[in-house]
Amino acid sequence: MSDSFNAIEFALYLRRRWRVAAICCVTAVAVAGIAGALTPKRYTASATIIIEPPAGMDPRASLAVSPVYLESLKTYEEFATSDTLFARALNELGLRRRYPGSNIESLKRRVLNVSKPTATRIIQIEATLPEPLEAKRLAQFIAEQTVALNRSTERHSSQDAIQEAEHSVQLAQTQLQNALKAANTGAGTDTVEALTAELKSTSELKYDVQRDLVRAKGDLADLTSKHFAPGDEKAEWTAQETTATRARILDLEEQEKKLTATVIEK
Length: 266
Hints:
This protein is mainly α. Helices cover 69% and strands 8% of the residues. The chain is built from 8 helices and 3 strands. A 3-stranded antiparallel sheet has the order 1-3-2. The longest helix is centred in the middle third of the chain and has 52 residues, at 132-183. It is elongated.
């Protein structure tokens, strides 16, 4: 049978044994202090990348529905979390000597953290190291190289788009010349023949675009199926080619839609 709790008796009990409670508290504080002193200090530095919308886009428009903008967000994250970029940062900043036997992937999980806060257009890069200055240099290096890699990819994509546009212009000029020649005849039959010739030319152009689209999707499948060992220099090149190929696929799909509408109209 248990007795009821008596607060006064319990207080008197603690008073008689206050030395035991005091010794326990002092011991706990001492152990915590020793553990804190022996634990190595680690410092976290952060760098933020603000991702601007593509050139020419209305800033008042919603960016959530833009495939190009969403692709740019993924590209920044892929570059920032690249094993190749992390290994290059360790070598160029002289940090590799701190972890001579560590695996790149496991070391990256301990040292580097890349995140994109929900409903934002920023990439947050955090580096955690025993030295605050080294942590700051690593976070800054990853951020700067991520931006540089993305700009290089955009330049390659722009050159491909320019070449595609020039090719389309040449085909359009040929179609226009054929149409003008047919229109100069002045006869109704000749007009029908001109439309037929223009329709044929447009259909051929559509076929070429579809063929290029199939090839581009095949190239993308080959690129995404490749796997590289940590630190492989080909991984960075493959990431750039993957982004450029995805942009080319989007452009070809848009051309195919326009050509299909033109064929239906004619």
